[in-house]
Amino acid sequence: MLICIEGIDGSGKSTLAQRLAQLLQKSGKTVLLTKEPGGSALGKQLRTILQTQPMPINPVSEFLLFAADRAQHVQEVIKPALAQGTIVITDRMGDSSLVYQGYGRGIDKQMIKQVNAWALQGITPDLTLYVKIDGTTAAQRVQNRGALSAFEKEQKEFVDRLITGFNELYQDRTDVITLDGTQTPDNVILTAGKALSQWMNQHRP
Ligand code: TYD
C-alpha cells in the first residue's frame, strides 16, 4: 500500500507523516517513511538545489528536476518496498508538481501529468491524505521555522494558487482523505488514524 501526504508548506504534513508511520508500526505493520524531493541519494542532492536555488532555474527545468528525483525515488525506494509488502508513506509525490509547478508556476499541467506517469512507472498512491490549511496560518508556521526555502519565499498569490490547485485536484475523490491542518497535531493524527483504519477495512482484498 502506498500512502501519499500532500499539502502546502506549513500545513503540518511532515509531522503527520512521521506520526502516522509510528502509529502503523505500533500496530505491527512494516512501514517505510520517505519523501519527495530527497528520498534517494540522487534526490538528496537535487533537493538542495531545488530548495536553495543558487542559480536561476526556469519552471520547466524546475519540474524536470523534481521529475528526476521522482524517477529515482520510485525505482530505488518505492517499488522495492512495495514488492516486499511494506506500507510506504511518502511525504509528497507527483501531485506536488501538478500543484507547485502547474498551478503555482503556470506550466502545462498535461505535460506534468504525462511526465509524472512516466517517471512513476504508472505507480499511483492508493490513498492520499490532504492536509488542508489556509495560507495565513501556514505562513505563520513557516516564518516561525527559520530559514526559508525558495518555495517558502514565494508571495501570497503563489500560495493562493497552490491552495486552489490542491482543492480542485482533490474534490470529489474517493482515494483522498482531507484533514483539517489548522487542528493540533494530536487531533490531526487522531482523525487521520480513524479515517485510515476505516479506509483499510473498506478496501481489504
Ligand atoms: P518539503 O519536503 O515539503 O519541504 P520541507 O521538508 O522543507 O518542509 O518540500 C520541499 C519543497 O518542494 C516544498 O516547498 C514543495 C516543493 N515541491 C515542488 O515544488 N514540486 C514538487 O514536485 C515537490 C515534490 C515539492
Task: Kindly list the characteristics that best describe this protein.
single chain; 205 residues; alpha/beta; Rossmann fold; 5-stranded parallel beta sheet; 8 helices; globular; binds thymidine-5'-diphosphate
Folded structure, characterized:
56% of the residues lie in helices and 13% in strands. With 205 residues, it is of the alpha/beta class. The protein has a single domain, classed as Rossmann fold. The termini are close together. The site of thymidine-5'-diphosphate (TYD) has 14 residues, from helix 4.
Could you say which small molecules are bound to this protein?
Answer: thymidine-5'-diphosphate
Would you tell me the overall average pLDDT?
Answer: 97
* SS strand fraction: 5-15%
Helix/strand/pairing category: alpha/beta
- In the CATH hierarchy, the third-tier topology is known as Rossmann fold
Helix count equals 8
- Low-pLDDT parts are none
Gyration radius (Cα, Å) is 16 Å
CATH superfamily: P-loop containing nucleotide triphosphate hydrolases
Total DSSP E strands: 5
SSE diagram, text form:
Layout: E1 2-6, H1 13-26, E2 31-35, H2 41-52, H3 59-83, E3 87-91, H4 94-104, H5 109-119, E4 127-132, H6 135-144, H7 156-169, E5 176-180, H8 185-202
Parallel strand pairs: 1-3, 1-4, 2-3, 4-5
